[in-house]
Amino acid sequence: MKRIFFITGFAILISSAAWGQITTYNAGEKVVYTIQYGILTGGTASLDIQRETLNDKEIWHSRLLAKTTGMVDALFRVVDIYESYIDPSTELPVMSIRNIHEGRYKKYNVVWFDHKTRADSAILTSDLTGVHITPQGIHDIISCFYYFRENILPNCSNMKKGDVTTITTWFTDELYPVRLKFIGTEEIKTRFGKIKCYKFNPVTETGRLFKTEEGVSFWFSADKNFLPVKVRFDIFVGAFTVEIVNYEGLVYPLEIKKK
Fold this sequence. Notes:
This protein is mainly beta. The chain has helices at about 1-10, 70-75, 145-150; strands at about 30-35, 40-55, 55-70, 80-85, 90-100, 105-115, 120-125, 130-135, 140, 165-170, 175-190, 195-200, 215-220, 230-235, 240-250. It has a single domain (about 1-250), classed as YmcC-like fold. It is about 10% helix and about 55% strand. It is globular and about 55 Å long. It starts with a helix and ends in an 11-residue tail after the last strand.
């Protein structure tokens, strides 16, 4: 169950050299989603990014909150929070926080990222597991999708179906390569109207949760925002979706085909 709700948070997803050079998003952007299991609304999620200061340095602070609501909340309460503090000069995380409450299971962990001490690798210090040496340029699970949105998605017009982008991340205190396969373009129905999107399938592990390696689908708006619009999970117990219901602070007007 905890895997499902991490992936839900993970599904909603999203960096550049300086605030003045950002092209796809800006401080103050916030997106809200609803989590649907069939006709049942099982939860909500939100992702926002703000400009803050950490250790006297300007950083980006992104916060992802996913939580259950209604009947699902009464049966099995989940409140998961993932935070990423990103250095705007490198697009890399400085610190990440994983704060999850899933039923009786709780875990809180802070990881610090040192990308400067070693030229060939990064040094990560986890409150729970100590020091780790990882490949240079490693992301956390939130910063990698900001990087993906800002640096990879603008090149979608040059991608072919089946092309895979891999970004190495650190998640649950281990290396976690995120591999995203480009599927093509689709129009997605939303409460605002239809939105043309780029579709990607993260390559997932089969056996535990997913039937196939394409058990998850992401849709990003095919405009200058590259906004995460929808996520679908096909798992052994059924399918559920994460769909956009509100947004604010976008750099560009969201391109919508009105109903």
